[in-house]
């Protein structure tokens, strides 16, 4: 569950911009969206105790990850819609392509493509090295 200040705005972002599909719409205005590959994100209004225009609903230290098959083309389409991407797609040390952006409430999102590098032992070794473990 991620909290958003404006459920309709969040829905427009995840459904209309990122391509999620609305699968449930509850009377309490909690909406669940699903991408074709069965990844889900649930959105709900910020709890009353935290609500208000000056209160952040961003999730410090939390990043949402979504795998996108044609990452570069997907990001190009976002840019054509004037959406700001904080890091354009690039190859990471562990062998996956990543792009980074934020949703309207400041939640960090990583769009990535692992492809055939997903389970290669050399990629996993590079990931451990990049993480310092």
The Cα radius of gyration reads 16 Å
**CATH architecture descriptor text of the largest domain:** Roll
DSSP strand content: 25-35%
Can you tell me the residue ranges where pLDDT is under 50 for at least 5 consecutive residues? Answer: 35-39, 47-52
Descriptive notes:
- The protein has 133 residues and is of the alpha/beta class.
- It has helices spanning 7-17, 71-80, 121-131; strands spanning 2-4, 21-25, 31-34, 40-45, 63-67, 87-91, 97-102, 108-113.
- 24% of the residues lie in helices and 30% in strands.
- It is globular, with a radius of gyration of 16 Å.
- It is built from 3 helices and 8 strands.
- It folds into 2 domains: 1-49, 2,3-Dihydroxybiphenyl 1,2-Dioxygenase, domain 1 (Roll); 62-133, 2,3-Dihydroxybiphenyl 1,2-Dioxygenase, domain 1 (Roll), CATH 3.10.180.10.
- β7 (97-102) and β8 (108-113) form a beta hairpin.
- The strands form 2 sheets. Strands 1-4-3-2 form a 4-stranded mixed β-sheet, with helices on one face. Strands 5-8-7-6 form a 4-stranded mixed β-sheet, covered by helices on one side.
Please describe the topology of this protein:
Layout: E1 2-4, H1 7-17, E2 21-25, E3 31-34, E4 40-45, E5 63-67, H2 71-80, E6 87-91, E7 97-102, E8 108-113, H3 121-131
Parallel strand pairs: 1-4, 5-8
Antiparallel strand pairs: 2-3, 3-4, 6-7, 7-8
Key traits:
alpha/beta; 2,3-Dihydroxybiphenyl 1,2-Dioxygenase, domain 1; 2 domains; four-stranded mixed beta sheet; 3 helices; 24% helix; 30% strand
């Amino acid at each position: 569950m991620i909290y958003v200040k404006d459920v309709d705005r969040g829905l427009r972002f995840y459904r209309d911009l990122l391509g999620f599909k609305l699968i449930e719409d509850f009377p309490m205005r909690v909406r669940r969206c699903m991408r074709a590959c069965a990844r889900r994100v649930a959105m709900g209004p910020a709890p009353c105790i935290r609500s208000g225009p000056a209160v952040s609903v961003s999730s410090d230290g939390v990043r949402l990850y979504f795998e996108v098959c044609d990452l570069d083309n997907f990001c190009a389409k976002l840019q054509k819609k004037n959406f700001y991407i904080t890091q354009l797609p690039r190859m990471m040390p562990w062998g996956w392509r990543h792009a980074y952006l934020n949703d309207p409430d400041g939640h960090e999102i990583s769009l990535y493509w692992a492809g055939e590098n997903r389970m290669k032992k050399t990629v996993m070794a590079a990931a451990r090295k990049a993480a310092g473990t």
